[in-house]
Write a structure and sequence with these properties.
single chain, about 475 residues, mainly alpha, Growth Hormone, Chain: A, 18 helices, globular
Length: about 475
């Protein structure tokens, strides 16, 4: 393997990998709960439970795809066959997600349909995200450059999230004579669904084809490519003995549970708690996209010369405070009233900084996981980028499903009604939701910071390992 020179064009190209993934995640994590709950009438907790049940599939498929992509031999290398294979399930099941058959009338049937769609989507995400993440340790062993590359991809994910969310509120979820609250318009979700599915297919193919020229620079399989279930199980458990990898996994479960519960409830908070209109929400999202983009330039400067563990802990804590502060101030009566221009502008600024912090946090998190590739290679003698980084994808998806379930439980605990209308939710229901939302998320964030403090692989140790491998 010859390591290519990482240029600005390489960073931008790799960053496009976050575009198709961003559309998938926006739909699954931000709009599925409200679509199946408020529009289709399934209970919030049951909707979240469907996403959580899919974890049984993820628990096997994520590490299995990581293991297979580490050992796959083909003229397209180890990663690209999986990247191309992700296109059909990602786009197809995303389309089906928004078009349940008219014959489905019972809540159980709708639950099973949602479960099948989510499993199909997760298969597509697994086939794409694991190989694309695994390419970074192969492209560069530089401690700082890995953080930069991950940030480009994550920034693209959040920017497309902002763009799709703006389009949802500005175009597809606008009020109509039939639906005064555009968020409850089923046709809007369907139009966005088929357009999103088409874009997902195009964007994943464009990324995979664009990265094709790097195949000669990506490491191949040396010797016989054995792929045996016994070896897979043995290697998985060997990796889990690494205390730093366990810290990343456990911390990630806590962090992404809170973060994705927050994403699932975003539309509830902005529609009902803050009482923003669809037009206002489409504008409020703009600085979120700008904050995500700014992370490309902010994180490399923040992380330069610092331990990744330290940066991660501080971004978790700072992000938690920034995210939850407006809710806390409203609950104690020291925040601008709904409908005021002050509230609108404060939330614009809030969106910029919260997105900036969370993208930086996610980028450094992935980078510190990628650093464990060389540590494990020194111990085992083989590169396992796919299997190691599958810990991240599984953790994020597992927490995403669990976080959406937690969000549904919080709504049910607050007695939040279905078919709700802004301004008609009882004040005590909104206050109850706020008091549940803030403390629950803060606990998860604090747990995440604790586990990350157990990560032990330092910058100096990584440098020594890379030098040792270069001499062998």
């Amino acid at each position: 393997m010859t390591t290519p020179r990482i240029t600005a064009s390489t960073r931008w190209l790799y960053g496009t990998g976050g575009l198709g993934l961003g559309i998938l995640e926006t739909g699954v994590y931000n709009f599925v709960l409200i679509y199946y709950n408020q529009v289709l009438g399934m209970s919030a907790s049951l909707t979240g439970f469907a996403l959580a049940v899919a974890l049984i599939f993820d628990a096997v498929s994520d590490p299995a795809v990581g293991y297979l992509s580490d050992r796959w031999k083909s003229r397209w290398g180890r990663r690209h066959p999986f990247l191309y294979a992700s296109i059909v399930p990602s786009a197809l099941f995303y389309y089906l997600l928004w078009f349940p058959p008219a014959g489905i009338t019972s809540e159980l049937s709708l639950f099973l349909y949602l479960l099948v769609c989510i499993v199909g989507i997760r298969l597509g995400m697994t086939l794409f995200d694991i190989p694309s993440n695994a390419a970074i340790p192969e492209l560069t062993s530089d401690y700082e450059e890995r953080t930069t590359l991950f940030t480009y991809k994550l920034a693209a994910t959040w920017v497309i999230w902002s763009a799709m969310s703006i389009a949802m509120y500005a175009i597809w979820l606008q009020p109509t004579p039939e639906y005064a609250n555009g968020v409850l318009n089923p046709e809007g979700y369907r139009q966005a669904g088929w357009i999103g599915a088409l874009l997902i297919a195009i964007l994943i193919f464009a990324f995979s084809a664009g990265m094709h020229r790097f195949i000669p620079h990506l490491s191949g399989v040396e010797g016989e490519a054995r792929m045996r279930p016994r070896d897979f199980v043995h290697q998985t458990f060997e990796l889990l003995r690494n205390p730093s990898l366990r810290a990343v996994i456990l911390g990630g479960m806590a962090f992404w549970t809170a973060s994705l519960a927050q994403n699932a409830l975003w539309i509830y908070l902005y529609s009902f708690f803050w009482e923003f209109t669809s037009d206002q929400m489409s504008v409020v999202i703009i600085p979120m996209g700008l904050g995500s983009f700014a992370a490309i330039y902010a994180l490399p400067r923040l992380a330069a010369g610092r331990e990744k563990r330290t940066v991660t802990i501080w971004t978790i804590l700072l992000g938690a405070v920034v995210t939850l502060l407006p809710i806390a101030l409203r609950l104690i009566g020291t925040f601008p009233e709904n409908g005021s221009s002050a509230l609108f502008w404060i939330m614009m600024v809030h969106g910029f900084f919260s997105s900036l912090i969370w993208v930086m946090q996610a980028g450094i998190w992935r980078s510190m996981t990628a650093d464990l590739v060389e540590q494990e290679q020194l111990k085992s003698g083989q590169r396992s980028e796919g299997l190691i980084l599958s810990a991240l994808t599984f953790t994020a998806k597992a927490a995403g499903a669990f976080g959406t379930w937690v969000a549904g439980i919080m709504l049910d605990l607050a007695s939040f009604p279905t078919d709700a209308a802004a301004g008609e939710i009882p004040a005590q229901t909104l206050v109850k939701l706020g008091w549940i939302y803030g403390p629950v998320l803060m606990v998860f964030y604090l747990v995440a910071a604790y586990f990350i403090s157990r990560y032990k692989f330092s910058r100096a140790e990584h440098g020594e390992v890379v030098e040792t491998l270069a001499r062998t």
